[in-house]
């Protein structure tokens, strides 16, 4: 895998607006942010061959809105990505055998994984380690399996509006 794209679900409705956490859909702001962040990631070079999506309602909705910017990947909905640890995210990505994988999932796992790869002290990586807010996306790339992951882009709704 030479490109890993991490995409957090967008802003969801409040907990009391759904039967349970798994069924929380996107809030109006989330529906606005999702395609904008996806388009920015595509402009930064995100080109997934496969997209792994948590099968929770808000991540499925996020992917539906983001997919306009990524029309080519094969899509797999996985229960194992729902509120999982960073290790599970990476294991599922590696199992695909694809050169470029996008994961649409949840914190804290996404933030943990992104923080592990963003270990340098440049300003962009410091921002990513501090926060991976709703709708955020990051692109990590590496030359080969023996090289380390490097942050290529980090996009949030706020960075787009600034």
CATH superfamily: Phosphoglycerate mutase-like
Q: List the domain count as a whole number.
A: 1
Structural class: alpha/beta
Strand order of the largest sheet: 3-2-4-1-5-6
How much of the sequence is in beta strands? 15-25%
In the CATH hierarchy, the architecture is 3-Layer(aba) Sandwich
- Mass-distribution shape: globular
- Helix segment tally: 6
Report, as a whole number of angstroms, the end-to-end distance: 32 Å
SSE order, as H and E?
EHEHEHEHHEEH
Low-confidence stretches: none
Main beta sheet strand tally, sense and closure: 6 strands, mixed
Q: Give the C-alpha Rg.
A: 14 Å
- Provide mean pLDDT, rounded: 94
What is the fold-level CATH name, i.e. the topology?
Rossmann fold
Broad CATH class: Alpha Beta
Approximate helicity band? 25-40%
> What is the strand tally?
6
Provide structural commentary:
The chain is an alpha/beta fold and 162 residues long. It has a single domain (3-161), classed as 3-Layer(aba) Sandwich (Rossmann fold), CATH 3.40.50. It is 36% helix and 20% strand. It has six helices and six strands. It has helices spanning 28-43, 57-66, 86-96, 109-117, 123-130, 157-161, and strands at 3-8, 50-54, 74-78, 100-105, 137-141, 150-155. It has a six-stranded mixed β-sheet, sandwiched between helices. A hairpin with an 8-residue loop joins strand 5 (137-141) and strand 6. Helix 1 packs across helix 2, helix 3 packs across helix 4 and helix 4 (109-117) packs antiparallel against helix 5. The longest helix is centred in the N-terminal third of the chain and has 16 residues, at 28-43. It starts with a strand and ends with a helix. The mean pLDDT is 94.
């Amino acid at each position: 895998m030479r490109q890993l794209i991490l995409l957090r679900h967008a802003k969801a409705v409040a907990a009391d607006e759904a039967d349970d956490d798994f069924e929380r859909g996107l809030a109006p702001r989330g529906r606005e942010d999702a395609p904008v962040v996806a388009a920015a990631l595509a402009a930064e070079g995100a080109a997934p061959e496969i997209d792994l999506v948590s099968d929770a309602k808000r991540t499925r909705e996020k992917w539906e809105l983001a997919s306009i910017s990524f029309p080519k990947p094969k899509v797999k909905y996985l229960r194992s990505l729902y509120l999982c640890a960073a290790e599970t995210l990476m294991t599922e990505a590696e199992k695909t055998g694809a050169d470029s994988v996008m994961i649409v999932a949840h914190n804290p796992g996404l933030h943990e994984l992104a923080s592990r790869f963003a270990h340098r002290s440049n300003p962009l990586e410091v921002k990513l380690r501090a926060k991976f807010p709703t709708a955020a996306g990051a692109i990590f790339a590496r030359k080969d399996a023996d090289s380390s992951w490097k942050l290529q882009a980090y996009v949030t709704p706020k960075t787009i509006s600034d």
